[in-house]
Write a structure and sequence with these properties.
The active site is at residue 148. Pfam families: Pep_deformylase. Belongs to the polypeptide deformylase family. This is Peptide deformylase. The chain has a single domain (5-188), classed as Alpha-Beta Complex (Peptide Deformylase), CATH 3.90.45. 26% of the residues lie in helices and 29% in strands. The chain contains four helices and nine strands, in the order βαββαβββββααβ. It has helices spanning 27-40, 73-79, 139-152, 163-177, and strands at residues 5-6, 45-47, 57-61, 83-95, 99-105, 108-117, 120-126, 132-138, 187-188. The protein has a five-stranded antiparallel sheet, sandwiched between helices. It is globular and about 40 Å long. The chain starts with a strand and ends in an 8-residue tail after the last strand.
Length: 196
Amino acid sequence: MILPIVAYGDAVLKKKAKDITKDYPNFEGLLDNMFETMYNAYGVGLAAPQIGLPIRLFLVDTTPFSEDEELSDEEQKALSGFKRVFINAQITKEEGDEWAFNEGCLSIPDVREDVFRKPKITIEYLDENFTAHKETFDGLIARVIQHEYDHIEGVLFTDKLSSLKKRLIKGRLTNISKGKINVDYRMRFPDQKKKR
């Protein structure tokens, strides 16, 4: 089932999410719905707060990035088929010199800005079977994970912009929160409480 994606301005996007346990209600169905919702909106990641649930859960599928012809064969191969579920994740280390990449977000449609992040992370998480992992990722995979991880910490990519950039996009963000935007996927807007 395709769920509405919560738009910028909704309080759930600013909350630090809570851990979940194996007995979370209809967990498998929730994962299926989240993947379906993400693919329907042509996303490469989706966090539970983006569908209105303040829980520490996000998923990633970087396959669409693998089609970028500017990337090396090695980078394309790493991105192709990288599909993961992250439960109760904690980034334990971020390394390297920050680099800029133009980011967007399904909750903030039609706004894209350069965001600086470190290129390498170590993360501890549970997978969809609640098996524990500790892994290190770098490059675009690390970038997507960091973006989705921020969602479960109550942080949006726009929070990482300079005060000047924030002022420049303020009107667009206000319009998104009021539902004054055309999107080709279902959204829930905080000011209107209506679904599209």
